[in-house]
Amino acid sequence: MANINPKFGEKLKEYGAENFNACYNCGTCTAVCSLSTPEDSFPRNMVRCSTLGQDQEIEASLKPWLCYYCGECSLHCPQDANPGELMMSLRRWLTAKYDWTGFSGLLYKSLAVTLISLIVVALGVVGFAYQQNFELESLMHYGHYFEMIAIGSVFAVVLVPNIIRMWYFVIIKPKKKVAFATYFKASGDFFVHMFTQKRSLGCDDNQVRWFEHLILVFGYLALLFTTVFLDWFDSKNLFVIALGYIESIAVFVITADFVNSRLKKQKAVSTHSQPSDWLFVVGLLLMGFTAFLVRLAIDMNMIQSQLWIFIVHLIVLAQWALIVVPFGKWTHFLYRSFAMYFAKLIELSK
Ligand code: SF4
Ligand code: SF4
User: Fold this and answer.
1) 295 exposed, middle or buried (CB, 10 Å; 0-12, 13-18, 19+)?
2) Which long-range contacts (CB under 8 A, 24 or more apart) does 97-100 make?
3) Ligand 2 pocket: which of 20, 48, 68, 73 to mutate (most atoms <8 Å of CB)?
4) Who contacts 251 (Cβ-Cβ below 8 Å, separation ≥6)?
């Protein structure tokens, strides 16, 4: 008999779901969803599982990750049950479920926890700068090492264990039989989806959003590579300097458009913004903008007199690396890529 959690509906509301109990199971949402297939049919059955409190069904499901939130289902729902937003809320709930530290859930559910975390990290950076007597050279040196150590630690301590938990929930616990060789056979799918998110092209009228995401993913990863491995702020190489400028501008321009879209509530994906959504887009926007300003201040020989620019950049960087990447919406990018990979494993094992 299916497991029933009567408190699940209330819990989902803490993750942003609203009005899904109004669903009368007509199936219109599934009929209009261009990503739903007979093998992977959604969102109606996810709405059904949510109203019935079947949290273990959802925990083992990859369906919330197969939705790219085009909003068509919500537009056509005769009950205003907003199945598109429910799918988004399920992704938040699953992110909290995968996270062994429990911190993701706290961030999603409490704005106070989010604000306190941001303030603590900012104070930590200012305290460190004070301890270094606000010496630019020393701050740049440690800032550069911080990036490398933070990336490695966040992956080793938080993200890799969480991916293993996700694998346990969707493959091991439901007793899916996957041959060892299949893990290699399906690996191409992981990289293709991670870098191109090509499945989202299946959503109607999604080409512009897909293209913006593509530039953002490549711009963000390239900026990370340029600052961490090519040492952009210290580089004298004109090509590296120009590359960093182009990447930071690309990240800034695309995220500014996303912020604008959320402010104006132009698309379904941006009409129900939660604090975690704002933290992601504003954090990314500030990353691109402050990185650009730091390099500009270096090139104009102003960085010594305008040290605050670098300290603000360090604060944004630390908040991004210690809060958004391991526990915030950035993880959706990773979990979605693994969801495509696990879905392929299951498909090849049938
Ligand atoms: S369209 Fe609305 S009412 Fe119909 S199944 Fe979907 S969520 Fe329920
Ligand atoms: S938001 Fe779009 S992709 Fe997601 S379930 Fe609804 S129709 Fe399908």
Assistant:
1) buried
2) 97/59, 97/165, 97/169, 98/162, 98/163, 98/165, 98/166, 98/169, 98/331, 98/335, 99/158, 99/162, 99/165, 99/327, 99/331, 100/158, 100/161, 100/162, 100/165
3) 73
4) 216, 219, 220, 223, 284, 285, 287, 288
Q: What is the per-residue pLDDT for 270?
A: 72
Query: What is the reported pLDDT for 44?
Result: 96
**Cβ count within 10 A of residue 118:** 18
| Per-residue pLDDT at 182 | 95
Residue nearest (by alpha carbon) to ligand 2 atom 2: 70
Mutate to test the pocket of ligand 2, among 80, 87, 206 (most ligand atoms within 8 A of CB): 87
Radius of gyration of the chain (CA): 21
8-98 adopts what CATH topology? Fumarate Reductase Iron-sulfur Protein; Chain B, domain 2 (1.10.1060)
pTM, entire model: 0.91
How far apart, in Å, are the Cα atoms of 21 and each of 7, 31, 63, 83, 292?
13, 19, 19, 10, 47
CB 59 within 8 A of CB 16: no
Q: DSSP H helical segments within the chain, as ranges?
A: 8-14, 28-32, 44-52, 55-59, 63-66, 72-76, 83-98, 103-109, 111-131, 136-153, 160-167, 180-185, 187-196, 207-228, 238-264, 275-299, 307-319, 325-327, 330-348
Average pLDDT along the chain, 350 residues, taken 10 residues at a time:
82 92 95 91 95 95 93 93 95 97 95 96 96 91 88 95 98 94 91 82 75 88 91 93 95 91 77 86 93 95 92 95 94 93 92
**Range(s) of the chain covered by CATH 1.10.1060.10:** 8-98
